[in-house]
Amino acid sequence: MKLLNRLFCLVMWVPATQAAGAPATPDFPLAGTWTLVAADQLLPDGTRIHDYGEAPAGLMMIDKQGRYSVQIYRTGRPHFAGGDKKSGTPAEFEAAVFGSSTHFGTLAIDSEARTLTFSIASAAFSNWEGTQQKRAYELNGDELSYRVPARPDGHIPLSVWRRVR
């Protein structure tokens, strides 16, 4: 009898959208794994420079509900000489901070306005936590690019990602 009660409770808990015969909810359009192609800056004069080195490393994962995680790393970041980040030098800490950008949260798409809005739950740069950041984006097949609003110096960070198939 206890088993039957548990099964009944489990069946009643299943959301209505998953009930027999109900259509599945559509996937988030950007769901999947993305690898970083470029992490650059567009300068006011139109010049494009590498913000995280010539071959940055990065991974962005987005699930079917729009939850995401982003990691971007500069190539060639120096290792901590002491082998322990608690004993790092100021220069090692600076290279670690300026050589990476990581955050996670939820993502919303406005396809008419061509914008992505990152609702950042947590980030290596703690000032971003709890903020929403809008980015203009372009999606061409399996290539996604988005631009961060211009920094005070007029530079515009640009990230380019390729979907992993």
Sum up the structure in keywords:
165 residues, mainly beta, Lipocalin, 2 helices, 9 strands, 42% strand, disordered N terminus
Question: What is the CA–CA distance across the termini?
Answer: 47 Å
Provide the CATH topology: Lipocalin
Strand content: 35-45%
List how many beta strands DSSP finds.
9
Radius of gyration: 21 Å
The largest β sheet comes out as:
8 strands, antiparallel, barrel
Helix content: 10-25%
Q: How many discrete structural domains?
A: 1
Helix count from the secondary structure assignment: 2
**What would the average pLDDT be, to the nearest integer?**
87
**What is the overall shape?**
globular
How are the strands of the largest sheet arranged? 1-3-4-5-6-7-8-9
Domain Lipocalin-like: 32-154
Signal peptide: 1-19
Keywords: Signal
Protein name: Lipocalin-like domain protein
Please sum up the structure shown.
The chain is mainly beta. Helix content is 13%, strand content 42%.
Structural notes for this entry:
A hairpin with a 2-residue loop joins strand 7 (132-140) and strand 8 (143-147). The longest helix has 12 residues, at 2-13. The protein has helices at 2-13, 90-98; strands at 32-42, 48-50, 57-62, 67-73, 100-110, 115-123, 132-140, 143-147, 156-163. An 8-stranded antiparallel beta barrel has the order 1-3-4-5-6-7-8-9. It has 2 helices and 9 strands, in the order H-E-E-E-E-H-E-E-E-E-E. It has one domain: Beta Barrel (Lipocalin). The protein is 13% helix and 42% strand. With 165 residues, it is mainly β. It is globular. The model is unreliable at 1-25 (pLDDT under 50).
